Structure formats: C-alpha cells, structure tokens
C-alpha cells in the first residue's frame, strides 16, 4: 500500500539478501521507524514486543526468523531451538504455528548446507502468498461493498465499521479487513470507515487511522463504545473485522471487543463479516470459547497511555489509580452464529465446518496428520 504516495510493505528483505526490515509499529503514528532484524532472537523479540503484530505478519516474521536462525546454525538442534523460541512468542494467532510448521516441514529433510537458501526462499514465498491471498480477499469483499453501494442513492457513501487493525500493517500488504476497502476506494466508490480506537493498545486509532489517512481513504476515529449507537441510527452499512484464529466450526477469535460489535450488529440487522486468509483457519479446534488460549498481556497497556504533547514531546502517562488491579485479556471469541460471512481468498463463506472444509480441503488434510 502507499504512504504519502510511496509503496511500502510492512516487512521486506534488504538488498544484502539476508537482513530483514520491518516497520516498528510500536512507534506509530508519531514516528515512522524501520527496524532491522538480523537474528532469530531479534525476530522473536519483534513478535513478542509487538514491533510487528497481526496474525499474517506474525507468521511472515516467524518464517524470516527461521531463516535468520539457519544463517547462524543449520543443525537439527538449532532448527528445533528456533522453532521453540518463536512459537512461544504469542499464543493466540494460529498463523505463527502454521508458518513455523511450514518452515520445519521444508527444512528438516534437507542437508544442512541447503537449509539457509531454502529457508529464505520459503519465507519470501510466504510473504508473497500473503499478498496474493489478501488481494483475493479484497476482490470478494469488494463485491459486498459494491452491492451495498448499488442499493443506495447515487453518490451516497458506504459506511464500514472495523475493529483493531486488520490493515496492511497487520499483513505483508493490502490487509484483510481493509483490502476490500482499499479496492473500493481505488474504484472510485464513496466509502467511509468508522475506526474503533481499540483500547488498550489503540491499534485502530494509532495504526488503522494512520494507514487509511496516508492512503487517502476517508475515515473517522471513534471510541470503542460508539459502534452500537451508530448502528442504531443507520450509520453503519456493514462491519468488517479481521481475526487471529477461526475454528473449524466458524468461531472467530479476534481483538478484545469484537464480540460486542457482533452482538450490536445482530441486534440492529447490520451484516457482520470477518476477513481472513486461509492460514488463519485452525481445523484442529472446534469450540473457540473453550479451546483457544486467550493471551493476557501486561497491566501497563491498560494503566499507561503514550502520545504526543502540545510541544511535540512523546510522553507516557498513567491513567489508572496506583494500586488498582488490572485484567488485560487481548482477545475474545465471537460465536459463528453471529457471523454473517467469512471473506476468504476463495470466496465469501458461511461460518460453519461444511463451508470451510469444502473451500479448503487441503487444510483439513493437514489438520488430520
């Protein structure tokens, strides 16, 4: 996608052929800084600290982390150590495990001297595959937006509400939930995005608003609790969110607060769609509420906020009374019954086992192994 007219991805390989660079998302929207990752440890820390975040980007970063590890040591023992180090960084997003399994499956049978080149090639392929998948999601999601636009008066805008950041910053390029939005914008449709701020890390206000603004897409940042009000007053035409894991039966695990948006959408007859790449489907899990591990993050994400002061300084301040306990659940699960449809690279699917298995039979086979 574009930042002030210049195309850029969230992660890329430098011209030296081995250094990995990524946008440091912890510093957005106030500072644009590129981090250079030169070791597996650095890749693991980037995922853990949320220098990079978003399920597809986490997977791509982990793949590059395996390549960086191979550059340092191509032995079987080093392969296993790198796998364990990277898979321990974030427990919820399934793309992490998918990418690491892909890398280990490829590298294990190869002679050690061949592993480094093969690892970099496969990591690059995973990044390119993510872009192609997101473009497919964009095309199928665009049809939903165009159908709504066709039902409106000429020139009347289509309002999309999204939650957290499922934009190109959460993927390698294009994004999942935002891919249909970007395509609609490029086709000249009058589209507007309601951007949930998405506490506690404010990925909507900090990241989604930043990328939409730099790409020129009309948008408005709203407090997290505003979505229901907007829906009650006919100001939301559809909701599109991303997801970190979708179960075999269509339950959706996404950033905390997604479930509440789905409830409000159902109550007001607003279509609630989830955009996802196929590596986000976990056919080994049936019941999302019971089986998906929900990451609990540090209290400081709730107690503290960072922003730019009037005189230009970046400051972190505490907003919660000292001594007050904090619970910081990073994700929640939206039951399949609340999901209008799953926007995938192979079409818009019903949120159930039969539709997912029919669209992605190769993924069900992998889960059975």
Structure notes:
A hairpin with a 2-residue loop joins strand 17 (341-344) and strand 18 (347-349). The protein folds into 2 domains: 2-128, Four Helix Bundle (Hemerythrin (Met), subunit A), CATH 1.20.120.420; 139-368, Rossmann fold, CATH 3.40.50. Helix 3 packs antiparallel against helix 4 (94-107). It has helices spanning 40-48, 55-72, 76-87, 94-107, 112-151, 179-186, 203-215, 227-232, 258-267, 288-291, 300-303, 353-359, 361-368, and strands at residues 2-3, 6-7, 11-13, 20-23, 34-37, 158-162, 191-196, 219-222, 238-241, 245-247, 252-255, 272-275, 281-282, 304-308, 314-318, 331-334, 341-344, 347-349. The strands form 5 sheets. Strands 8-7-6-9-12-17-18 form a 7-stranded mixed β-sheet, with helices on both faces. A 4-stranded mixed β-sheet has the order 13-10-11-16, covered by helices on one side. The protein is α/β, with parallel strands linked by helices. The longest helix is centred in the middle third of the chain and has 40 residues, at 112-151. The mean pLDDT is 94. Helix content is 41%, strand content 18%.
Describe how the helices and strands are arranged.
Layout: E1 2-3, E2 6-7, E3 11-13, E4 20-23, E5 34-37, H1 40-48, H2 55-72, H3 76-87, H4 94-107, H5 112-151, E6 158-162, H6 179-186, E7 191-196, H7 203-215, E8 219-222, H8 227-232, E9 238-241, E10 245-247, E11 252-255, H9 258-267, E12 272-275, E13 281-282, H10 288-291, H11 300-303, E14 304-308, E15 314-318, E16 331-334, E17 341-344, E18 347-349, H12 353-359, H13 361-368
Parallel strand pairs: 6-7, 6-9, 7-8, 9-12, 10-13, 12-17
Antiparallel strand pairs: 1-2, 3-4, 4-5, 10-11, 11-16, 14-15, 17-18
């Amino acid at each position: 996608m574009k930042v002030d007219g210049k195309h850029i991805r969230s992660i890329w390989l430098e011209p030296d052929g081995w250094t990995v660079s990524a946008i440091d998302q912890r510093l957005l929207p106030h500072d644009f800084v590129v981090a250079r990752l030169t070791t597996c440890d650095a890749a693991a820390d980037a995922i853990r600290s949320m220098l990079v975040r978003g399920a597809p980007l986490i997977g791509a970063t982990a793949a590059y982390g395996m390549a960086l590890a191979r550059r340092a040591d191509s032995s079987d023992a080093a392969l296993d150590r790198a796998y364990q180090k990277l898979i321990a960084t974030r427990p919820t997003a399934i793309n992490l495990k998918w990418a690491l399994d892909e890398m280990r499956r490829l590298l294990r049978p190869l002679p050690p001297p061949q592993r480094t080149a093969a690892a970099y090639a496969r990591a690059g392929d995973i990044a390119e595959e993510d872009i192609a998948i997101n473009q497919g999601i964009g095309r199928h999601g665009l049809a939903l937006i165009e159908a709504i636009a066709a039902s409106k008066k000429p020139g009347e805008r289509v309002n999309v509400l999204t939650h957290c950041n499922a934009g190109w910053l959460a993927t390698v390029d294009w994004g999942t939930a935002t891919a249909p939005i970007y395509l609609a914008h490029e086709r000249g449709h009058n589209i507007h995005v309601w951007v949930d701020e998405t506490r506690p890390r404010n990925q909507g206000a900090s990241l989604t608003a930043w990328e939409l603004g730099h790409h020129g897409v009309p948008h408005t940042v709203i407090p997290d609790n505003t979505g229901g009000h907007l829906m009650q007053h006919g100001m939301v035409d559809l909701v599109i969110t991303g997801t970190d894991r979708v179960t075999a039966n269509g339950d959706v695990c996404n950033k905390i607060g997604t479930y509440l948006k789905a409830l409000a959408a159902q109550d007001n007859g607003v279509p609630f769609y989830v955009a996802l790449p196929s590596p986000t489907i976990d056919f080994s899990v049936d019941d999302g509420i019971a089986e998906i591990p929900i990451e609990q993050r540090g209290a400081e994400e709730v107690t503290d906020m960072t922003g730019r002061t009037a005189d230009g300084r970046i400051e972190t301040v505490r907003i919660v009374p000292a001594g007050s306990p904090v619970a910081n659940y990073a994700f929640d699960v939206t039951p399949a019954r609340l999901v209008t449809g799953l926007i995938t690279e192979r079409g818009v699917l019903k949120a159930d086992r039969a539709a997912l298995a029919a669209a992605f039979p190769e993924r069900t086979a992998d889960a059975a192994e």
